[in-house]
Protein: HU family DNA-binding protein
Amino acid sequence: MTKKEFIELYAEKGNLTKKEAEKNINLFLESVEESLVKGDEVTFVGWGKWEVVERAAREVRSPQSKEIIKVPAKKAVKFKVGKLLADKIK
Structure:
């Protein structure tokens, strides 16, 4: 589902205009982003948790050249699905 499709679904379910729905979704995404940038976790009990994790530096082999390449350490966003959502997906 694209963001545009999600906005349409959200607007329909919430009885909102597409403009209002887009504003709400953008505010939500910006708030999650700000929290993650600060290093906070964002948790919705039963639904899931976003957190920033450190990925260690590592060496990988290039499939084309078979050469070993060093990949530097970096931060990444990890999402762990909550039990209620996981049960609904099954």
User: Anything to note?
Assistant: The domain at 1-86 is CATH 4.10.520.10 (HU Protein; Chain A). The CA atoms of residues 57 and 72 lie 4 Å apart. The longest strand covers residues 48-55. The chain has one domain: 1-86.
